[in-house]
Amino acid sequence: MIRFAAPTLTAVALLAGSASAADLTDLTDPERAAFRAEVRAYLMDNPEIIIEAVDLLKERNAQDQAQADVSLVKDNADALFDDGYSWVGGNPDGDITLVEFMDYRCGYCRRAKPEVAKLLAADGNIRLIVKEFPILGEASMASSRFAIATRKVAGDEAYEQVHDALMELDGDVNDVVLGRLADGLGLDSAPILARMGDEDITAEIAETRALAQRMQISGTPTFVLHDELLRGYLPADQLEIIVSEKREG
After folding, report:
1. What is the pLDDT along the chain (249 residues), one digit of tens a residue?
2. Is residue 239 a contact partner of residue 115, using CB atoms and an 8 Å limit?
3. Is 209 exposed, middle or buried (0-12, 13-18, 19+ CB in 10 A)?
4. 3-class secondary-structure state, position 84
5. What's the CA gap between 85 and 178, in Å, rounded?
6. 155 burial class (0-12, 13-18, 19+ CB within 10 angstroms)?
7. Nearest-5° angle of CA 46, CA 48, CA 54?
8. Number of neighbours of residue 179 by Cβ within 10 angstroms
9. What's the number of CA atoms in the CB half-sphere (13 Å) around residue 230?
10. Distance CA 202, CA 134 (A)
């Protein structure tokens, strides 16, 4: 029969999975009940151990997720960094690439925009790639279609202007509103509006959605910074720290 000595020693040894700990499958029902009572009593007297265990589990899960994300970035590098159609800003020859999956109707994307601009202004060696990822309804889809159509009709500079304007646009999104937006920027809205339904625009958005699915991205903004996947809004100072770490690494 197993004798239970000090509760702390036996309980901790078994909880930690020590090789010298008793095998619970060898216990009789009374012994198992006694052990469970002993563990419960120990945890009730030392509840901070539960918090420590939960924190450790979260840390391990985060490390596992980070490693999995690195693999996702590596496996999808061509689609992320060189798809041939996404708009490229910042320094096209920069040594660090920042990819942003964004939605024009996303409040956090709007909060992130000045932070990204601040990062690019402070660091002239960052390449920015914008992934049109409309996931928040018809207004999001119409906005992305209009932005992509602008790039196809009027080029990258016009796209950047429209992209910035759409990020600040409130209210309904329809042909009238989009036409006025383009006209206000000095663009010819008619050919842009005419291109919004093109199959190649549909294909671009579908490819980005498929990429996001492979990357396990379901929300915006989501960033890929060099080899790291960053889910959610981040201020410029945090982005700057990560950029520095990537360069040092």
Report:
1. 333 334 444 444 445 444 344 566 778 888 888 888 888 888 888 888 878 777 777 777 666 666 778 999 999 999 999 999 999 999 999 999 999 999 999 999 999 999 999 999 999 999 999 999 999 999 999 999 999 999 999 999 999 999 999 999 999 999 999 999 999 999 999 999 999 999 999 999 999 999 999 999 999 999 999 999 999 999 999 999 999 999 997
2. yes
3. middle
4. coil
5. 22
6. exposed
7. 130
8. 17
9. 20
10. 12
Judge contact between 181 and 200, C-beta under 8 A: no
Tell me if 145 sits within 8 A of 197, measured CB to CB.
yes
Residues 155, 223: Cα–Cα separation, whole Å: 24
Task: Please state, in angstroms and rounded to a whole number, the distance separating the CA atoms of residues 237 and 189.
Answer: 38
> Which pTM does this prediction carry?
0.76
* Distance in angstroms (rounded) separating the CA atoms of residues 135 and 58: 29
Residues in contact with 232: Cβ distance below 8 Å, sequence separation at least 6, in sequence order? 108, 219, 221, 222
